[in-house]
Amino acid sequence: MSEHNARSRRRGEELINAIHTAVLEEVAEVGVARLTMEGIGKRAATPRTTLYRRWSDPIEVLLDALYHMHPVEEPTPGADDLRGDLVRALRLMVDWALTPAGRAVASILTDPKGSPRVHEALFERVFANRGGTFTSTVLRHYAERGHFPAELLTPVVADIGEALVTKRLIDTGAPPSDADLKAIVDQAILPAVGLRPA
Amino acid sequence: MSEHNARSRRRGEELINAIHTAVLEEVAEVGVARLTMEGIGKRAATPRTTLYRRWSDPIEVLLDALYHMHPVEEPTPGADDLRGDLVRALRLMVDWALTPAGRAVASILTDPKGSPRVHEALFERVFANRGGTFTSTVLRHYAERGHFPAELLTPVVADIGEALVTKRLIDTGAPPSDADLKAIVDQAILPAVGLRPA
DNA sequence: ACGGTAAGCTACAGCCGTGTATCTGAGCAA
DNA sequence: TTGCTCAGATACACGGCTGTAGCTTACCGT
C-alpha cells in the first residue's frame, strides 16, 4: 500500500519507447560489452521481468531499439555551394554521432566481440536506409551537375570526410568545430575531387 | 605426488612477460570492458593470487603491459619514392593494427568508459615515442626535400591516410589490401599535397 | 461492471568475477 | 645445505547479473 506509485503504470508503446531510449543511453554510456538487463531495467525504471517477457538478452533489446529509432537525417544539397554543403553534411554527421543512437552505433561497430548478426542488423537499419554516407550524397549531387569529373568520386574519396571526422572524435573525444570541418573539406575532400580552393 | 607440473615453475621476468602477452591477447579478444583478472590468469596459466600480488585490477595489468611492449616500428622513407613510401607506411600501420597490441590499443581508444588515465598512458607510451603518425613521418621527409609545398602538410592532411585505413578496418573488419592502400594514397593523400598522380 | 492482459513487485537458485587468506613447494642465493 | 622468496594451488564470503516463477493489480476493451 502507500501510494508508492506517483506515476501511473505504463503500457505498450509508451513503455517500449522508454525502454528503447534506455538501452540507447545505457549502451552509449557503458558500451555494448557492459550492457545488462539489470542496467536497462534500472534506467527505464521497469523490472527485469518485463524485459524478459519481450526480449531474450540485452543485445536483442538494443537491436530492437535500433530498428525503431528515427532514421538519420540526410544532407540536402543546395544549389551551388559544394563547400558549404560538404561542411553542413559533416556537421550533420557530427551531430548524429553525439546522439545516444550515434554513440550506440559507435560502440557496436568497435566492439571486438561484436557478432556478425549485430553488425549486419546495424548496417541494414542505420545505413541502408540512407543514400550513402553523409558527404557522398552531396558529392554525387555536384558530380552529376558537372562541378567535377564523376570518375573522381571513388569509394575512397567518398569516405574521406567521414574518416577524418571519426578519427578526430576518437582521438580527442571532443566534437570538431566548424573550423575543423572546413579544414577537412578544404584540405582533404576538395583536393581529392580536383578542386583546390582559392 | 604425481608430476602435475610438466613445465617448471616460472619466475620474475619470464612470468611477467607471459602475463603481459596474456593481457594484450585478452583485451584484443574481448575488449577492455570485459577484461578480468580471471581471464588474464587463465590465459597466462597463473592463479589470480599471483596477479593480485602485483596489480590491483585488470587495467593496471594492461597499462603495465603497454608500458613494456615494443615500440611501434617507424617508417623509414627511402630516396625518391613518395608514393611507395606512403603505401609502405600504411602497410606498417595495418600490420601493427592487427597485432594484439594494436587491437588492444583500438579497444582502449574506443571504450566509452575509458578513463582519462588510461587514455593518457596510451598516448605517452604508444604514440609519444614516435615521430608522429605513420604517414606524416614520410610526408615530412618529402616536404623538407621540396617535393611539395610544406605548408600543405597540415594536421588534417597528416591524418588522411590513417583515418581512411582506420575507417576501413572498422567498416569491413578485414585488413585493406595493397590495392586499397594504393587507392588511398593516390586518391586522397597525394591530391591533398598537390600531387595528382599521372 | 467485468475480465483478460500485461506491468509491477518479490523471491530465489545459479554462475561468475572479486578480493583475501592460507598453505605448499620450487627456485635461487649465501 | 639451508633458508628466503615467491609461484602455485585451494578455499571462501561477497556482490552483481541471470533467468524463471509466482503473485498482485492497474489498465483497457467489451
UniProtKB/TrEMBL annotation, chains A, B:
Pfam families: TetR_C_11. Keywords: Transcription, Transcription regulation. This is TetR/AcrR family transcriptional regulator. InterPro entries: Homeodomain-like_sf, Tet_transcr_reg_TetR-rel_C_sf, TetR_C. It comes from the Bacteria. It comes from Nonomuraea turkmeniaca. The keyword Transcription regulation applies. Signal peptide: none annotated. Residues 77-187 form the Tetracyclin repressor-like C-terminal domain. SUPFAM superfamilies: Homeodomain-like, Tetracyclin repressor-like, C-terminal domain.
